[in-house]
Amino acid sequence: MRRLVDLEFTHRYLDELPADPERRNETRLVGDACYSYVEPTRVAAPRLLAWSDLLATELELKKPAAASARDPDVEILAGNARGRGMQPWAARYGGHQFGHWADQLGDGRAISLGELTTTAGRRFELQLKGAGRTPYSRHADGRAVLRSSLREFLCSEAMHGLGVPTTRALSLVATGEPVIRDMFYDGNPRAEPGAIVCRVAPSFVRFGNFELHAVRGEHETLRKLADFVIRHHYPSIEGDDPRRYALWFEEICARTAVMIAHWMRVGFVHGVMNTDNMSILGLTIDYGPYGWLETWDPLWTPNTTDASGRRYAYARQPQIGAWNLARLASALRSLVDDETLLQAGLERYAATFEATHSAMLARKLGVGAVDVDTDAAWLDELYELLAASDADLPVFFRELSRRLAPEPESFESLLEDACAVLPAPTLLQRWHAWFDAHEARVRRGDVGDREVRRRAMDLDNPLYLPRNYLTHQAIEALEQGDATLLERLLELLRNPYRAVRGAEIFAARRPAWARDKAGCSALSCSS
Ligand code: AMP
Ligand code: MG
Fold first, then answer.
1. Does residue 393's CB lie within 6 angstroms of at least one atom of ligand 1?
2. Closest by alpha carbon to 291, among 278, 303, 305, 304?
3. Has 276 been annotated as catalytic?
4. CA 156, CA 318: separation in Å to the nearest integer?
5. At a CB cut-off of 8 Å and minimum separation 6, what does 158 contact?
6. Contacting residues for 297 by C-beta, under 8 A, at least 6 apart
7. Burial profile 256-284: b = 16 or more Cβ within 10 angstroms, e = fewer
8. pLDDT digit string, tens, across residues 334-362
């Protein structure tokens, strides 16, 4: 096992792509370049608050021996020291925010340090979020508060455990410095503890990197960045294939479709699907006011800033994915002679999403297949009943597999667990009919072994999720210096499909008090 301080870091992004020649770390519009050199701003008293053992094992890293700055690795993770070969940078990108072109955004508080290489030769970029101002910080401070950093740290690792493509998080470090935030946007700013997350991914390039080059007419740089991403991250696409940019776009479309199908499967709502928050690798990125659909409300969003438009609500995510890909397609237009090839990519998105989503839904329900046309009425009835019964979705879906057990659980007992109160008799009648139809579908056609199907259901329906109210409790505890709950959640979420004795409370429906409490369901963008 290795220590960061002993490793030699590389930075292909810097070696192979054009830099901003200006070194002034001041807010400004940056010219034709992919990044600006920056230095993280020192912090007063770094302290390691959390560490992902799972990711560290994948990266072959040893946990820092001391939580304080006495350990040189903690200094690196706080931005106070540089490892060997590290050359920090902030990436330049733009983006469409809430449907409107926002022009230059860029890494305003994220600073990449370099790449480490595993013994198997895989490279991972390490990036500090909340490490200080950059030329892209605009009017903001370059910092992040503990609560939003804990949310990003925990959810990155939880999504990985859930089997959802995502950027990862290695560490959560307290800065020992206050950060001023107006959490409710009500004119009452207060000082909160600051923190830095070390994020890890093969690359943090976003749709917005390409959009900004396209808008500025920087076609050479756009092509260089596309070649860079293809060369290092889409190696199956041949360098000399004349259709390579179109094939690459199609592959991005397919990956994005699979990612969003997973979001729908686990009930994840990203909350801010702006094109600067869309990874070119099809990874979930930039965890802000995200949440989990706990009761059926397709237009639910955890993001209070989006409460009136609900652009990024749960059920809209697939179509927003398509919209964002269409923005990327326009940005890549100068690379592709024949526009219909980009159209083919968007069609691939729709087809991949439909196929992946319906296969996942079939596995979640334990039925052989879901046909969106012939099963539509039955599915609509399910969603109506779930909403009318105020059923907890994760509990309902998880328990559904018990209907396939050798001694099936009664549907009433299943509903007792999923609903706060047993549904009224008229609803129960409808549920009865729905469960009969479910059983008929379970038996239909070549269904294979019922027991095999039951086990498969439990691998698609998570038992544990970092529900916002649980994460909120972990934040409140950590702000008081107690990391026990965070560590417990991290441990359970390493494999959220496997039941752990004594952890029942973490699999239960959200308590009534948490339903409308700030931070426990909906959140502002303040971070
Ligand atoms: P987000 O909504 O988190 O994706 O951020 C949108 C843009 O605002 C990105 O360019 C961020 O880097 C920037 N940004 C967000 N918060 C801060 C902050 N506290 N300091 C500097 N830039 C920020
Ligand atoms: Mg962002």
1. no
2. 303
3. yes
4. 20
5. 465, 466, 489, 490, 493, 496
6. 314, 387
7. bbbbbbbbbbbbbbbbbbbbbbbbbbbbb
8. 999 999 999 999 999 999 999 999 999 99
Collect residues with CB below 5 Å from ion ligand 2.
277, 286
Q: What is the 3-state secondary structure (H, E, C) of 407-422?
A: CCCCHHHHHHHHECCC
Helix (H, G, I), strand (E, B) or coil at 377: helix
Which atom of ligand 1 is found nearest the CA of 107? Answer: 12
CA 159 to chain centre: 7
Query: What confidence score (pLDDT) does residue 446 get?
Result: 62
pTM of the model: 0.98
pLDDT band at 444 (very low <50, low <70, confident <90, very high): confident
What is the rounded distance in angstroms from the CA atom of residue 133 to the CA atom of residue 90?
Answer: 10
Measured in degrees and rounded to the nearest 5, phi and psi for residue 341 equal -70, -35
Is the predicted pLDDT of residue 231 greater than 80, yes or no? yes
Q: Which tokens belong to 508?
A: 């239960």
pLDDT at 191: 97
Name which residue sits closest to atom 18 of ligand 1, judged by CA: 142
Assess contact for 131 and 110: CB atoms under 8 A: yes
Beta bridge partners, 73, equal none
**In 156-269, beta strands by DSSP E:** 168-181, 190-201, 268-269
Element (H, E) at 253: helix 244-266
Query: Quick one: tokens of 449?
Result: 């072994």
